Amino acid sequence: MKPDVSVIGPVQASIEQKLTVKLSPKSLTISNDSWQHRHHAAMRAEGGGNGETHFTVNIVSDEFRGKSTMQRHRMIYAALSEELAGSVHALSLYTKAPEEVEVVSQA
Amino acid sequence: MSSFVEVTSPEQFKELLSKDLNRVSIINFWADFAEPCKQMNQVFQELSKKYPAGLFLQVEAEAQPDIAESFDIEAVPSFILLRGHTLLGRVAGADASGLTQQVEKHAAAPTYTPLSRTDQTPARATADITAPTAEETPEELDKRLRGLMNQSQVVLFMKGSPDTPRCGFSRKIVGLLKDNSVQFSSFDILTDEAVRQGLKKLNDWPTYPQLIVKGELVGGLDIVQEMINSGELSPTARLIVD
Q1: Does residue B82 share a domain with residue B158?
Q2: Thioredoxin domain spans which residues (chain B) (predicted)?
Q3: CATH number of the domain that B120 lies in?
Q4: What is the tens place of the pLDDT at every residue in A32-73?
Q5: B161 in contact with chain A, both atoms CB, cutoff 8 A
Q6: B43 in helix, strand or coil?
Q7: Same domain, B149 and B120
Q8: Are residues B163 and B207 in the same domain?
Q9: Residue A96: its chain B contacts at CB < 8 A?
Q10: Is the ipTM above a cut-off of 0.85?
Q11: Chain A within 8 Å of B46 (Cβ-Cβ)?
Q12: CB-closest option in B169, B204, B218 to A74
């Protein structure tokens, strides 16, 4: 039974809170992809995981300016070290500084 | 070893059984006062000649009360079939055909004796030279990790192998590298827990896959994807491919 993705679990809430505090993002979107990974070998071994194992994070923040992608990812990993030591297996990260965000509205 | 023995003591009985725990033994509990026993003893002797693979033990129940009690013998004649200490069957009473049947079933041919035996557990398989030794110190692990990271220009630490990836991200990154003609060697972190945890610490990077170029961590799937989009991977790739 596919979970209701509009329900935010405790891990996702924690991720949101920590990134907001650490990076004061202009925009932050987190999506829970765990359902798609539930039958991978590692997840099967854990009985499918707890439903909060894989997330995609889209984040725009001033803090990323002048930093390489790797450095940006490290900042996020550092902020979420607790979650990564816990149930979170993987994070898909899209990190941008405000200037780098493509302005879609331009014709 | 003789296949017919008259048991005279519990110690002898125990010793006879333990000599070969693979051998089938047939125990005849008999008594002097019971007429049917005389006949069955004869049958018993005949069987011992016909089926020498079995160990035929004759026990006078009243003379050996301890042995009889340990098998719950309530009446004579009674016959017990054992393999070592495992009970194979019982025959109660002067049932010659029943006894013959059981003996034939269990003691017809010599039991299989393995040519060699060992009590040791099998040795751990080590397929390649980069496999760790039993006790690996942190320094040894560090050295091994650096060795693995430098084994070629581009090394991918992934879950599974390029032909059988065991994770969506690992599969994708293999696809990206192949699509961009990047030559790389790979290491399956699922086969080595020490490397799996050690590399995360060494590179200060909590996830897999990890792409290492010229001995240094470049990043995971997202970063590699970005590098391809921005054209960054090409200069690196050019360095590798030619």
Answers
A1: no
A2: 1-150
A3: 3.40.30.10
A4: 888 777 665 555 555 556 778 889 999 999 999 999 888 999
A5: no
A6: helix
A7: no
A8: yes
A9: none
A10: no
A11: no
A12: B204
Model confidence pLDDT, tens digit, residues B181-193: 888 999 999 999 9
List, for residues B153-175, the tens digit of each pLDDT value: 899 999 999 999 988 899 999 99
Task: Give the orientation angle of helix B96-107 with respect to helix B35-50, to 10 degrees.
Answer: 30
DSSP notation for B56-109 = EEEEETTT-HHHHHHTT--SSSEEEEEETTEEEEEEESS-HHHHHHHHHHHHSS
Strand pairing partners for B16? Answer: none
With 50 as the cut, is the pLDDT of residue B201 above it? yes
Q: Kindly state whether residues B221 and B162 are assigned to the same domain.
A: yes
* Count: domains in chain B: 2
How close A97 comes to chain B (CA, Å)?
A: 15
Half-sphere CA count of A71, side-chain side, radius 13 A: 8
pLDDT tens string B29-77: 999 888 899 999 999 999 999 998 899 999 999 899 888 888 888 889 9
**Chain B touched by A71 (CB under 8 Å):** no
Q: What are the beta bridge partners of residue B154?
A: B213
Task: Look at chain B and count its residues.
Answer: 242
Domain of residue B205: give its range.
Answer: 138-241
Chain A residues whose CB is inside 8 A of the B204 CB are 74, 77
Answer whether residue B133 is part of any domain: no
Sort out which chain B residues have CB atoms less than 8 A from A92's CB and list them. Answer: 169, 221-222
Residues B30 and B105 in one domain: yes
More confident residue, A107 or B118: B118
Q: Do residues B11 and B118 share a domain?
A: yes
The model carries a pTM of 0.54
* SS3 state at B238: helix
DSSP readout, A34-80?
A: GGGGTTSHHHHHTTT--S-SEEEEEEE-GGGTT--HHHHHHHHHHHT
* Contact assignment for B159 to A42 by CB distance below 8 Å: yes
Residue B217: closest C-alpha in chain A: A70
What are B89-128's pLDDT values in tens digits? Answer: 999 999 999 999 999 888 886 656 667 767 777 776 655 5
Same-domain pairing of B103 and B14: yes
Partners of B219 on chain A (C-beta within 8 Å) are: 69-70, 73
Specify whether B30 is located in the same domain as B116: yes
Nearest residue in chain A measured CA to CA from B203: A74
Superfamily of domain A10-98: BolA-like (3.30.300.90)
| Residues of B whose CB is below 8 A from A56 | none
